[in-house]
Amino acid sequence: MAKVQAPVSKNELLEVTIEDLTHEGAGVAKIEGYALFIPKALPGERAKIKVVKVNKGYGFAKLIEVLEKSEDRVDETPCPIFDQCGGCQLQHLSYAGQLKQKQKQVRNVLERIGHIHNITVHSTLGMGDPWRYRNKAQVPFAQREGGLVAGFYQERSHEIIDMNSCLIQHEENDKVVQVVKDVAKKIGVRAYDEKKHSGILRHVVARYGVNTGQLMVVLVTRSRDLENKQKIVEEICKKLPNVTAIVQNVNTKRTNVIFGEETKVLWGEEYIYDTIGNVKFAISARSFYQVNPEQTKVLYDKALEYAELTGSETVIDAYCGIGTISLFLAQKAKQVYGVEIVPEAISDAKRNAQLNKMENVDFAVGEAEKVIPWWYAQGIRADVIVVDPPRKGCDEALLDTIIKMKPERVVYVSCNPATLARDLRILEDGGFKTVEVQPVDMFPHTNHVEVVAKLQLL
Ligand code: SAH
Question: I need a surface site. Which of 58, 189, 285, 399 has the fewest CB within 10 A?
């Protein structure tokens, strides 16, 4: 076989036209068919670039200068650490441009991976004000010579950048991070050192119930002992008047997983509450709860609309978490069955059903791909099945059961268009038709895309 020779070499300076944008948010230029990925470059731009890495089929380059800029380019990105922090990838692209890009990405992936053509992919539903939307912050600590710092890991590294403010976080969460940092400095609590596995404070997790104003502070520590506990609690309460829960989570392991197994309340309650539409939820330190509450309402309303419930339907909500979608659906269905793998989430889901006095929901702990086939064997039939799997998508055994059960409609909520496309192909081959697809922007300025798809039994 002829050796493939890259037409560029490392450190070469080039002038190129950017043709496309990857799902990761990098610009793409082609040199004699060879793809170069250029972070922060935008489609349509002429740019001066420097090649930094040459692989066999593709390479990477650095943006040196934009020679002709895209009309979608934002010249002054609002966040001062946008270039170092890996949290956002698209601040340099106008918000309208981001929404268009996400719609295009969904359409492309459905065609390329799912071979699903000629369906309506609606314009991405975005936010009026796409900043300060996150209700949860998880921030690591590190000890430096000048004292303790808290911030984000620099992109592709383990170096923590000290940070005072994150523009996609709710202000309340920013405040929590600053307060905990100040309190720890004042009292002399040392940050965790991941190399030596020493020190105490690993992460602070802040959760804010945007619609109730309640605030939870979680201190993740390396050991159970937390000196000056009382003092820490007093200081936090003094500086954050709307805090309703201060919780310690103990993570003794050498790992970059944030939470450990043990959680205890230091002060106040074990939960904070939040509402989405008319439904109220109790949220504990470790439960999964969508991070953009404003857009969650948009997403769930769309799922509910696609479910077309009249009040007589039996509905299954697979991958139900703390029962958020299940309870949303239960407002309009005869009976809802929710299934989820994390036992604590199911306890939360049951509590949430009681909290809302909803009696037409049943929750089960287990893998959706085992529990739903078992339900099927017991004679349970659903008119509508909603799935909201993690990034890897649905297990094939679950898709097989959906195909056998023949619900009138399937509503697929997805945080990964690629696995959505793969699964839609399987469902289409099994007798369903994808009717329409709605991208919802849950994560402005990042490259993440959320989608709801509606499928009809043929
Ligand atoms: N629908 C919920 C949660 C979606 S996140 C909401 O909108 O809040 C996906 C959920 O799937 C997580 O709670 C995760 O714990 C759960 N999960 C992951 N694998 C699973 C499996 N095989 N079976 C059931 N649930 C699973």
Answer: 58
